[in-house]
Records
---
Amino acid sequence: MKNIPAVMLGTMPAVWEMLGSLAVSLAIVCAFMPIFIPYLRKLKFGQQIIEEYGPTWHKNKQGVPTMGGLVFIIATVLTFLVFGFKYYTQASFLSSKGFACLITSCLFGLIGFLDDFIKIKKKHNLGLTEMQKLLLQFIVAAAFVVFMAFNRDLGTIIQIPMGETSGISFDLGFFAYIIWFFAIIGFTNAVNFTDGIDGLVTGVSIPVMILFVFVSAVMGSYVSESYYELVILSMIMVGALIGFLIFNWHPAKIFMGDTGSMFLGCMVVTVAISLDMTLLLLVAGVVYLIEVFSVIIQRTYFKLTHGKRLFKMTPIHHSFELSGWKEEKIVLVFTAVSVVGCVVAAVLFWLLFCNHGILI
């Protein structure tokens, strides 16, 4: 710990600011959701369930309103405009870490919205094609990486501590930007895959956002005050997700849809990049990775064995369903795994930060 600067750079956001931002985003979601749900039902914006994409009993979810992610997106934007004001005005709009994450996430949310809207209009579980979705994601991800390259002082050096005073370091250079690009695409879609049963992706993501509060508070105190706006943004996300979980817990009254899962996935990875902790996201986001790799492994195994399956169904949470686990149990267990991953990531961050390790 002796390498940590002895003097803090600035004052952290006050407790009332952090708790206030959480409470306001939570209140907005809880206030608007009872209005939004009947409105979506009136418009017949319900989830389309296709048996091949989930257990047969998921047919009971047919018609449950979707695109609920719009509510917590709006809550996040409005609350950040109020509570993040002094931070992004100090940094200037064009160099704001929080706004870069928020705008990019909103654009990914827009891609999800188009996907949801097409599904509803076609009354089918397939919206944008995979190529259309990937093309739009590539464009937005590339724009974020270019913006960060020109406006952020992000580290491209990895330092692996070998002791209290020694370590191995190497500069990834341009390759770091490629990592960020594919991290955005990969993790956003991994979060999307995790959104398969009531409350799952919401429960798994709350501990991740709480981890970001801790990391951004430490970075803001000892590296740059510009990280403080990510404290506020992460707290806002915690409040918005708790609010959404109230309505998304089994049996769900509303689903976030691709609108919400794309926004949430992008928020997770862009905040991680802004905090120089992309590698630690592999630990904190362990559930996301398990979900997406279960799909990749299943598809690969299916092709290699000409039709055989390794898991009962993927993403992996469906296998647990088919094994007799109730949705509530799956959510609680997966959330517990996420909590463990985030605690381990927090410990690793603290140890590496103490040795001046730069994570990408």
---
Amino acid sequence: MAKKRKYKKKRKSEGVYTIVMFLIAIVLFFILKIDPSLLEDIKMPEYNLPEATFTKGEMSVHFIDVGQGDSILIRLPLDNEEKYKNILIDSGESGNGKKIINYLENLGISTLDALIASHPHSDHIGSMDEIIRRFNIKSFYMPPFPESLTPITSSYEDMLDELNLKGIKIRELKEGDVLKSLTEGIACARLSVLAPEKDAKVSDLNNVSLIMKLQFGEVSFLFTGDAEMEEYESIKGKIGRVDVLKAGHHGASNANGKELLYELRPEYTVISCGKNNDYGHPHNSVLNTFKKIGTEIFRTDLKGTIVIKTDGTKIITE
């Protein structure tokens, strides 16, 4: 507080000095008729702007246990307010709607600032229709994908029907996009899209998964959907280290290559998967690599819903 008062006092004195110098310049011009160009040599003080500060409050990321699927809630604290911007990525398989709705409503959430489908596979959009029907949705995002891969599943059709009923437009996200509207009013947050590439030529919807990096102060999260190594090739070497990783494709070996994991070297890794699932997720080879790089692993099949909080410097896991 003392530093802030000192800054205000400094600004006040500099303001008085500026006004005095300006009045002297006018007097010199009109009374002494000095050449106007000479006034350019009169130097005004340079203000020392305060350093960027962290948002007051904690950001929290909730990896909701939806079995073999993904559903992630991000709560970003607004500056100087006890309010949040709420972002939901994915909704798990069909049948998880009630669980997700109860979880969000228990947190007092009635509006989602953004609802994001990482890609249109049923274990990620299966309960989207229920979420859309229940909540006020300010914006809906999804990656573009080749027409030949357009899903013909009931999950996809039900999601589109609910979006149409509520007049919600689908906004496409691709490499290079920054979701500025979602971090407006939050001084230290940035949510950027690393992949997929525009017009990416893929043979599987997994490889149009949204790979997004969330920076909050000094702490970074990487959300990966079901992106496989094919998609990571386009951004290899460009991500750098992250603090928290949502393991790709529920911990599958084709989505968590050694080279990638050694580049990321996360302090914490969250694996969202179902108990005794039919795919053997997470694969043992991936768990071994995680062990070698020293990341602490949290699994929804073992721990249920996982919550990670940060004030921009410290990380707290629950």
---
Amino acid sequence: MKRVPYMVIVGEQEQADGTVAMRQQGGGEQATMPVADFAKRINDEVAEQLKATNVAPQ
């Protein structure tokens, strides 16, 4: 299974705004987004990887 590591930062400003500052490891994409959007993004990526390997989510 392929891993896509992220660094997620939640400082005082992010906490107050309900967001996370996210960066893909290796200097990839950087973005600030609501926590729910980040969670959906991760869930979608995991589902895609499971689908590609024919593993059913539990």
---
Amino acid sequence: MKRILSLLSTIAAIFAFTACEDVPEPYVLNTTGTTSTLLNETFASSLGKFNSKSASGTLQWKNDYSSAVITGYQDFDGNGVKENQAGETYLVSPAVHLEDVDSAYVSFSQAINYEKQTIAEDHKLLISSDYANDVTTATWTEIPISFNGVGGSFTFVEQEVQIPESYIGKTVYLALKHTAHDSYSSTWEVKNFRVQRGVAGEQQPDEPSVIEGEATGTGTLEDPFNCVAAINYINSLGSDVESSENVYIKGKVVSITEQYGTQYGNATFYISDDGTTANQFQVYRALYLGNTKYSSGTLLKVGDDVIVCGKVVNFRGNTPETVTGKAYLYSLNGETSPSDNPGNDDNTSGNDDNTSTVEGNTITFSAMGYDNAQDLNDKAIKVGDATLVFSKGEGSTTPKYYNAGTAMRMYGGNTLTISSDKTIKNVTIVYGEDYNGNSYYPTAENSVVSVGTYDYNDHIWTLNATSGVLTRNAQTGHFRIVSITIDY
């Protein structure tokens, strides 16, 4: 992630408004001085500028469930049976500059599950001053960490450890090293990884951090914060401090964690100034246009230009975001009131009837506006010239959409029927990633297609027909279908 810049401890923020429609005096940051935060990576939506490096084996750290995750126990060969795989895998930080600090410490939250016997040997925090893109040739020093409260669940436990004095004054790299064995492996999840000036366990001064990038705007309707300015402002509030007034923030939608739907009426999504993940800001459970719960109207899609209005908070001191229930989508591509036509220009969720419609040849289920756990049994989904129908079939559970994994779930006995007036050449299906050793994609043992052939490596179904049926014939587990693309 971006290296944190320095700033003066004096910050002026003058506000003279009591509602979103009022106009405050400009917010001012003085960016000289010293910041306490040297590295901050939440792993909320990606590994950031951390890199997964293997010393042995083929295992990789990945981003899942808003954390950095690694496991050596999963279905590696696609036969529907989980197995262990050995490997030593490092998650390496970007360079951390300690040249001008007197002391520094590392903090992060970790959860470890399924550990059998060698927890301290299998999970290490390391530091190096000579790392050069090869973990096997670098000189690593272990920084001992605590394992109290971890090992048998996915409960996160906070960790703070001091960086050895011998590394102060140098450019260093931190690494999380995971070891998996042939006969067993843990699952290790890490989030909110930070490096800060000072001593572990001591209360640090409230010094706001400033991220790289041009900060513009004063937080008013006439002059909204861009994402860089918004993050800088929120960082100045201190840990878990909620803004006293509402602010406006503009940006482009980067990704959608929870789409607007009628069950909860809000959405969670990321925005940034340029539509990339750089300096992205989380809009957390924001209400819909008009500061109301969503009932119908245009849905979000990646690339949309939005303005949000509401209170903001520096959650746990490391996650700038809007406050749940106290922020809303002020405008969507210039529109400030809900449209009469549910769905967006590309996707129409059609939650009020049995039909959903998508323009083009690809459907991404997280963009459809489905409610969490929404039952889609026997509901037609129009994708361009094709029709998709998920059905219960001979199973006991109906197919549903879930926010967890942002995917359609096909359970044992469920079917997916795809049909068109045209001849369908290929259907490419993207599935959710493995998690905790569970896989959510078809194999030759747990599925069958009625026509054509299915490539279980690339998950391309070759039909050369006007219709076909994919069936999950295994009675346990489920598929998680993230998106489907149809080619003619």
